[in-house]
């Protein structure tokens, strides 16, 4: 039977939405493995809009669902309509939209809140013992919601290759166990059915990012 996987997006663009290469890699690897991706996003305003040339906020407002539809080629559903009963797994790509639109991690760190619909979906998959795949910054959602879980965002020591390593320290303060890993590796928390990989938390060649996400997708489908 074809496995049905919900992919939740956070907009379109690394600095204010979903990281496009990560989202694309998830969809490509799901397709390659014969799984059916069903794309969702919350119907909410973005925190802000960033000019990706200048790296600065722009004076306009956009909607997370509408922007995410760009990546999904229009084939997308409101997250409020997601029914965990008909799905086998959940994957959330990274990008700053996870920390800005799906949560307030970007401004509040470990004291953040999670978008109500996003938290509800994560808890529903967790309660149903269905696997959840998270990459880049999105493991912070699990760290906030599931105390004691095991995740990776790469390394916990900041350097040129790992510029966002302080994220791991903040996650540890939430009571989760961070496992250092390379960009092409994943960590599987079998108790919580979580599969995580660092993706663009690492300054790495894009093919390595793609390969790490592929390994995450395969592990999620193996557990489904």
From TrEMBL:
The gene is Gatd3b. InterPro entries: Class_I_gatase-like, ElbB. NCBIfam families: PRK11780.1. It comes from the Eukaryota. This is GAL3B protein. It comes from Chaetops frenatus (Rufous rock-jumper).
């Amino acid at each position: 039977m074809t496995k049905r996987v919900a992919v939740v997006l956070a907009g379109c663009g690394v600095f204010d939405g979903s990281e496009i290469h990560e989202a694309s890699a998830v969809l490509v690897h799901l397709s390659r493995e014969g799984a059916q991706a069903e794309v969702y996003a919350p119907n909410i305003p973005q925190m802000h809009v960033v000019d990706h040339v200048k790296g600065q906020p722009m004076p306009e407002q956009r909607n997370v669902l509408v922007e995410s539809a760009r990546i999904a080629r229009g084939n997308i559903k409101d997250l409020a309509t997601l029914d965990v009963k008909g799905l086998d797994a959940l994957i959330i790509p990274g990008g700053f939209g996870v920390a800005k639109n799906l949560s307030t991690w970007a401004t509040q760190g470990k004291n953040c809140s999670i978008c109500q619909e996003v938290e509800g979906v994560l808890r529903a998959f967790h309660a149903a013992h269905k696997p959840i795949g998270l990459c880049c910054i999105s493991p912070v959602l699990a760290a906030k919601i599931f105390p004691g879980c095991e995740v990776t965002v790469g390394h916990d020591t900041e350097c040129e290759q790992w510029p966002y390593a302080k994220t791991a320290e903040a996650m540890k303060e939430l009571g989760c166990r961070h496992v250092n890993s390379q960009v092409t590796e994943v960590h599987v928390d079998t108790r919580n059915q979580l599969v995580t990989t660092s993706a663009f938390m690492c300054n790495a060649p894009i093919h390595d990012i793609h390969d790490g996400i592929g390994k995450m997708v395969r592990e999620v489908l193996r557990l489904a």
